[in-house]
Amino acid sequence: MKLTFLGACGEVTGSSFLVETGEVRFLVDCGMFQGGSETDRKNRAQFPYDPRSLDFVLLTHAHIDHSGLLPKLVADDFRGPIHATAATCDLLGVMLPDSAYIQEKEAEWMRESPTRRAGDAEPLYTVAQAKRALRQLSPVEYETELRPHPSLRCRYHDAGHILGSAIIEVTVTEPGVEKTVVFSGDLGQPMRPLVRDPTSIRHADVLLVESTYGNRRHKSMTETMNEFEHAVTDTVTRKKGNVIIPAFAVGRAQEVLYLLGELRRQQRLPEMDIYVDSPLALKATEITLRHTKLLDRESASLLAWLRSSTAGQRVHFVQDLEESIALHRVRQGAVIISASGMCEAGRIKHHLRHNLARSECSLIITGFQAAGTLGRRIVDGAKEVRIFGIPVPVRADVYTIGGLSAHADQEALLQWLSRFRKPPAQTYVVHGEQQTSEIFADAVCARLGWPKPVVPQPRSSVHF
User: Fold this and answer.
1) 6-44 burial by CB neighbour count: b if 16+ within 10 A, else e?
2) pLDDT in tens, 277-288
3) Domains of the chain by start residue, with CATH
4) pTM of the model
5) Cα within 13 Å of Cα(182), Cβ side
């Protein structure tokens, strides 16, 4: 068996792994690269394999850095099934066309730019191509054996990251040998809102484990709620400004709404207007409500309370562009949740342009900001940023609340690993910036006594 690391090596995004045996060839994830000057080049590059030769794709979850190149793969003549949980299939039904729409709009804008380069004016893929990819989705249930090929057994386990996210266990049978490879996907932080805790795995011959936050610890949920309460009340009540929250439309927007609702239930927040300025977030929220059996007990309890209570929070889902533009005239008392989570595209950039320079406002960062993104520059302390080519001073208060991360921190990752009955024969640390992955690999060795995990290089291959 041969495993090739095509992305998420020394960086967080671009998840994709090619598995080849004597009988079958398949991908685990086909994600888009995000952040950094090389992003567009890497996303547009020809796949280092013939998509027509792939038998199928196994998908860990719906986030674009794990799924975003599927339409390109299908456009390049991949014809096999894409196996994912039912919730992931539902989310992809809105996320991939949305991603394609953004590609088309950016290409349209570039066609009108006098500084465009050759190729810039073509979208990475179109809405039609994204919809074509959706036809190849094949829903899978958690904890149910999948046989995509006679020589393979697969099982999807709840990863506790976002709705429908999965740890994928693949058992390959070759002449005289059987080996199990586990792909962690993105693992969630235990005891966090909405989704259940990650499933414990007991055995793997080969393990690929994420390390997005493998170099740090998140704050506790109590500390997180206290910090969130202060940021909102200080801005809305004392400074009389707006709170701007960049949030991924899938997962993070729903978690932020959960936190605001829970704080209101505890009477720790005043009555206020909350604007969710993302059509995709509304669709993702509707999908979440269709899959309530996947939510944890606390989220189900809060949902029941919200449905039976006049909570004093006015939640507005903003759909029309005109409604979004009208928010620019709101000068105080609003909490605006908008995509994208790394401030790279979408309506959030307009809200930052209108609020970031105002000292009475606050920006709450609730998720990972990849190197090279606008969000990362702000978190790193930039005094001024450029938005739509216009310099914007950073005068608003910036809160970074890592405790809301959908990714497990170092302690949670080590706890998850500690539940293996014995160390895998080989462990690979992926989905992390280079230094972070190296730090986590050292921690696995020092804390658990495992053989030193490997941080693979992009495009490198290993044989088992």
Assistant:
1) bbbbbbbbbbbbbbbbeebbbbbbbbbbbbbeebeebbe
2) 988 888 888 888
3) 2-216+406-463 (3.60.15.10), 221-404 (3.40.50.10890)
4) 0.86
5) 27
